[in-house]
Amino acid sequence: MIKILTLFLFFFIGCGCSLSPSAKKKRRQRLNKSDEQAALAREKNRLAMENQRQAETDEQAALAREKHRLAMKNQRQAETEEQAALARERDRISKMNQ
Fold first, then answer.
1. Does the pLDDT of residue 76 top 70, yes or no?
2. Which tops the pLDDT comparison, 10 or 86?
3. Are 40 and 46 in contact (CB under 8 A)?
């Protein structure tokens, strides 16, 4: 008799029949809420990663612009120095010809 009652209790508890309809509804809502929270966490993580990638891209673009700016500055400086050297050479030659 005890074995039968024990088996009945195991079956009764194991199948979830002990839950009232309102308890089942609350359990479903809790599980659904957990799913929603997990989905929100995934979306938040996705947006954070997207923002991080965008920030990295923006930083790389800024570094490229700065590199280009410095290269152009150096090129202008070199051209100016070359023009100054040519002007000095012209002046030296013109003085020698006078």
1. yes
2. 86
3. no
Tell me the torsion sign for CA atoms 47, 49, 51, 54: negative
From CA 39, how far away is CA 45, in angstroms rounded? 10
CA pair distance 4, 8, nearest whole angstrom: 6
Residues 6+ apart with CB under 8 A from 19: 27
51 contacts 59 by C-beta, under 8 angstroms:
no
- Distance between CA atoms of 41 and 49, rounded to whole angstroms? 12
Rounded Cα–Cα distance for residues 41 and 43 (Å): 5
Decide: 12 and 18 in contact? Cβ < 8 Å. yes
Q: Is the pLDDT of residue 7 over 90?
A: no
Question: At residue 21, what is the residue type?
Answer: P
